[in-house]
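Record minuted for completeness.

…
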Amino acid sequence: MQNRRNTNRKRGLSAFVRIGVLCLAFYCVISFLQLREEIAGKQARISELDTQIEEQTVINDALRDQIENGVSDEYIASVAREKLGYALPGERVFIDSSSK
């Protein structure tokens, strides 16, 4: 009779351990998948930031070149045309009215 009780306890304990191990394995798999998704998101963010760095580097190089070489007359004229709407004497100015 004593052996039957020990055998039943061992079976119950064994089933409990199996369920615990199964739950632990399931938790590990879910955690692994979540980490993979998070890593993919971080890699995409790194790629975006690398693109922004490259764009800002180009802008910085252009500004550095302007500082080193001084501001040219062509640059001043292009800024005056684009930002302020100025024109040189004798130039024809066309206004695009289709965008209004």
Summary: The chain has two helices and no strands. The chain has one domain: 2-84. The mean pLDDT is 84. Residues 44 and 50 are 10 Å apart (CA to CA).
